[in-house]
Specification:
Layout (H helix, E strand, L loop, with lengths): L4 E6 L3 H17 L2 E8 L1 H9 L4 H19 L6 E7 L10 H11 L4 E4 L16 H7 L4 E3 L1
Parallel strand pairs: 1-2, 1-4, 2-3, 4-5
Length: 146
């Protein structure tokens, strides 16, 4: 199996941070690059749209997280890119965290996806955990759920 790009969806939860560790290990084992996908929860998107949350502060948090990941991979040859996507949409009813992850995986031509497992948590900030089963069932790439 050839892996050139590993996709690691994150949402700020502890589970997604753990999944990043596995994604880094996969990328390192295959000499692949990694892409972090920050998936925004519905309530956060609504708060940004309403002006209750500053979009720049969210972007700054994402840059800080990505910088932390970049520090862990410095020197091993793994490239790192990242992007942000809304996990839900008022305009696209079929848009969910799982579908967003798969859409991005196809857009960036990811060869491998590492996604956190579903959490028993009801924390609205944990948008990705509930998407794991959907990603496992419909992904065209190998998926590691941790």
């Amino acid at each position: 199996m050839e892996v050139d790009l590993v996709l690691a969806p994150v949402d700020g939860s502890d589970r997604s941070e753990r999944a990043v560790e596995y994604a880094l290990a996969v990328a390192d084992a295959y000499g692949a690059d990694m892409h972090l996908l920050f998936v925004l929860d519905e309530t956060l998107v609504e708060a940004i749209d309403a002006g209750n949350v500053d979009a720049e502060s969210v972007a700054s948090e994402h840059r800080g997280f990505a910088d932390g990941v970049r520090e862990r991979i410095d020197g091993n040859g793994t490239g790192l890119t990242y992007s942000t996507a809304a996990g839900f949409s008022q305009r696209r009813l079929a848009q969910s965290p799982g579908s967003v992850i798969l859409d991005v995986a196809e857009e960036i031509d990811a060869d491998f996806v590492v996604v956190p497992r579903e959490s028993p948590s009801t924390d609205p900030d944990e948008a990705i955990g509930k998407a794991a089963l959907y990603v496992i069932e419909y992904a065209s790439q190998p998926v590691l759920s941790v």
